[in-house]
Design brief:
The chain is mainly alpha-helical and 212 residues long. The chain is built from eight helices and three strands. Strands 1-3-2 form a three-stranded antiparallel β-sheet. The relative contact order is 0.10.
Length: 212
């Protein structure tokens, strides 16, 4: 019986098919236990000397054992149905690792002519998992292919150097570019991201680096 209970518990935990009913095995065992228990309790309450129980089990005891096992089976079915109702399969969406092309596309599609890693991270939701090293590598590749240049400088009260990718449109525009010429123009014409601070813009203006 203990083994059967363990099988049921394991099936519930693992979501497996429940083991077949073992009523035919359980009823005689339960009936035997009830027979011995009743015999012992009657003698104990009567204060008589303990004697071995009869080898014959009464029909009433067998009926009680059958009713008890049926009750256990019913409770098992109710529990299993409840578990099915309150649990649902969970599916995790696979997030593909961005390629070099998708990184460069995201940089060129960023709002405005200026891009920093911080502004890039606050753009598309898919960009939030990109590391700074991955971003810098993509920006350097764009610089090598004539889509802009990287400028590094420091402004007052800044704790570290500012690194800005300044977009520029190559002429003629390559047909193999990661975004179309029209898409580049559309992104370039948008407002500069708020993460490009006023001191950063002032530095770029003062040094004639702000694209027109």
């Amino acid at each position: 019986m203990d083994h059967f209970v363990s099988e049921v518990n394991e099936a519930i935990r693992e979501g497996k098919v429940l083991p077949k009913s073992k009523m035919a095995e359980l009823i005689p065992r339960i009936a035997t236990l009830l027979h011995v228990f009743n015999h012992s309790m009657v003698q104990l309450l009567a204060g008589t000397t303990a004697t071995p129980p009869s080898s014959k089990i009464l029909a009433e005891t067998l009926e009680n054992a059958t009713a008890f096992v049926k009750h256990l089976e019913c409770q098992k079915d109710i529990l299993c149905q409840f578990v099915k109702e309150v649990t649902n399969p969970i599916y995790y969406k696979t997030i593909e690792q961005p390629t070099s092309s998708t990184l460069k596309e995201s940089i060129l599609s960023s709002s405005g002519p200026l891009v920093t890693y911080r502004a890039f991270k606050h753009g598309k939701r898919s960009s939030r998992s990109i590391t700074e090293a991955e971003y810098c590598q993509a920006a350097e590749s764009l610089q090598e292919n004539g889509f802009g240049r990287i400028v590094e400088f420091r402004v007052r009260r800044a704790t570290a150097n500012c690194k800005v990718f300044i977009k520029s449109k190559p002429e003629p525009y390559p047909s193999t570019a990661v975004i179309s010429s029209a898409a580049f123009d559309d992104a370039f014409s948008k407002a500069i991201h708020k993460d490009i601070t006023a001191p950063m813009r002032a530095y770029l203006n003062d040094n004639h680096l702000m694209p027109q």
